[in-house]
Specification:
By secondary structure, the chain is of the alpha/beta class. The chain has two domains: 139 residues, Response regulator (Rossmann fold, 3-Layer(aba) Sandwich); 55 residues, Arc Repressor Mutant, subunit A (Orthogonal Bundle). It has ten helices and seven strands. Strand 6, helix 4 and strand 7 form a beta-alpha-beta unit.
Length: 215
């Protein structure tokens, strides 16, 4: 069996460079192209016909589930492995309903990514939606706790700091707007602030989000 041809899709150049170096060091994988946007990923898939696309689920120009569907429509034999910084059951379910082969979080570490890729090379079947949902609990256990807020609350904070409304945050994270409001209220209680403006300001001061972070 020859090396598996991989397309890297992430809007951060440093992430793509790190993945390329890692895959080359592991052996058995050849990075045939990169894409910094969903639109470019679609063009690269048509041009290069890779075996697998490793895709960030939150691209700036396209929702992750929409991108999965369009990639698979452009190249039906493609395997889409989602590698995302966001871990929620809703996002995992959305990815797999869209046809993603596997969902791995960046915080789960390189061993988890390598395990998924080796499963793919060995011909293992894609996860069902229910199997994919169980990934959330396991990868939560692998992810270090680095702040006084939950992973999902941290995601809500980042998007609130970027100026998104509760509705827009819900659309990005595949959450009901009422769930976003619940998280915002819990965060205000945790950080002892009165409104969203104070919440974002205190989160930045405490290092929970970065004012210059690219989202």
């Amino acid at each position: 069996m020859g090396p598996m041809e991989v397309l890297l899709v992430d809007d951060h150049e440093i992430v793509r460079a790190g993945l390329r170096a890692t895959l080359e060091a592991w052996g058995g994988f050849t990075v045939v192209g990169e894409a910094s946007s969903g639109g470019l990923a679609l063009r690269r898939v048509r041009e290069l016909a890779p075996d697998v696309a490793i895709v960030d689920f939150r691209m700036g120009d396209m929702r992750g589930d929409d991108l999965c569907r369009k990639l698979l429509a452009a190249l039906p034999g493609l395997r889409v492995l989602v590698l995302s910084g966001y871990l929620s059951e809703e996002a995992v379910r959305a990815a797999h309903r869209a046809g993603a082969w596997r969902y791995v979080t960046k915080s789960a570490g390189l061993d988890e990514l390598r395990r998924a890729l080796e499963d793919l090379r060995s011909g293992a079947a894609s996860h069902t939606v229910e199997q994919a949902a169980s990934v959330v609990a396991r990868q939560h256990a692998l992810s270090p706790v680095a702040s006084p807020v939950t992973t999902q609350q941290s995601q809500v904070l980042e998007l609130a700091a970027a100026g998104l409304t509760d509705r827009e945050i819900g659309q990005e994270l595949f959450l009901a707007e009422s769930t976003v409001r619940f998280h915002i209220q819990k965060l205000k209680t945790t950080l002892k602030v009165r409104n969203k403006t104070e919440l974002v300001a205190k989160a930045i001061r405490n290092g929970l989000v970065s004012p210059t972070e690219e989202l």
